[in-house]
Amino acid sequence: MKLGLGLDLWSGKGLRVPVEQVQRAEALGYDSVWTAEAYGSDAITPLAFLAAHTNRIRLGTAVIQVSARTPTATAMAMATVDAMAGGGRTIIGLGLSGPQVVEGWYGAPWARPGARLADTIEIIRKALRRDGPLEHAGTALSVPYAGADATGMGKPLKSILHTEELPIWIAAGGPRNVGLAAERCDGWIPMGFRPAMMRETYDAQLAAGFARRAGGRPDGFEIAPSVTVHVTDDVQKVIDAAKPRIAMYVGGMGHPSMNFHNQSMARVGFPEAAARIQELFLAGRRDEATAAVPDEFVDQGGLIGSPQRIEQRFAEWDGCGATTLVVRTHQPEALELMADLAGTKEQTRA
To answer: What are the tens digits of pLDDT across the range 85-95?
Structure first.
């Protein structure tokens, strides 16, 4: 099992890139570090900053929102970061976001999101491969642009930057896009993952996608769920502290009819709680929404407790079929403990 480090860069109204934490993770043998974006700071710029302060650790986005940029702009930005990082270090993690952000913040259409994601993957690949001038006639996106208002003067071009073909992963929880990850990508970032779900749900969805892929499942296909890690002698206190943020995401992050965080909670076995949290949150009863978050939901999605309790529960994650576990923590001792449990210190020495 490889380890990644998931970063939460927003602190109050500002942004902080925890360089020393990332450097320590690299020294402990962590394989990757991950940034995100919503509707404030972007996911790519911090990776360029981290590239200048690290040597080996892979630099991934979890995720770039596909509607925030054209596919070629995404390819250009990530290829640039990779070149600055020495080559072969960046992972292009893509995700859809939702209509509230896509239309309300980026001013882009939400229509045909699945087709937009599939076209984005293929356009990025073609741009990075440089097999010839870039041309793609997709269902949702075309290069050169071929809309009704096109001038007709668009010229297929080839990137002037020579780069490696960077891995593309997508974040997904629903069956269609889990299958798309298996069919067309190099990795999958599960949303709302619990270890038992691999066998119960995702193995079949991944297998269906691999069946549509020439040659089946490729060697090196990666699966990278996230887990919050907190070393403590008061598990309940940590669970309670996590609930307000969960209530905000499950209750209010997205349109009432299309909130992916709400759908994720329902998918992992808490549909009634998800519905109740959203009802209370949207009614302005936020304290009650927070109280409605089940303890079990928080505990199942994290590794919380004493080192002994975390070690016992880590076995389930270690044996679930994931190739990388993305650790989310602010604690140096948690960073060290996970490196011990996954054996990454020994791998670094070797």
So the answer is: 999 999 999 99
Residue 298 exposure: Cα atoms within 13 Å on the Cβ side: 22
Q: Could you read off the pLDDT of 292-349 as tens digits, one per residue? A: 999 999 999 999 999 999 999 999 999 999 999 999 999 999 999 999 999 998 666 6
Q: How many CA atoms lie within 13 A of 313 on its CB side?
A: 20
| Bond from prior residue into 81 cis (ω within 30 degrees of 0) | no
The two tokens of residue 267 are 């998918």
| Same-domain check for residues 310 and 247 | no
pLDDT in tens, 197-222: 999 999 999 999 999 999 999 999 99
Q: Please state the domain count of the chain.
A: 2
Token pair 């994931």: residue: 322
Q: Are residues 311 and 299 in the same domain?
A: no
Quote the crossing angle between the two packed helices 175-184 and 113-129, to the nearest 10°.
10
Burial class (CB in 10 A: 0-12, 13-18, 19+), 238: middle
Verify that 174 and 293 share a domain, yes or no.
no
Same domain, 94 and 165: yes
Peptide bond into 63 cis (omega under 30): yes
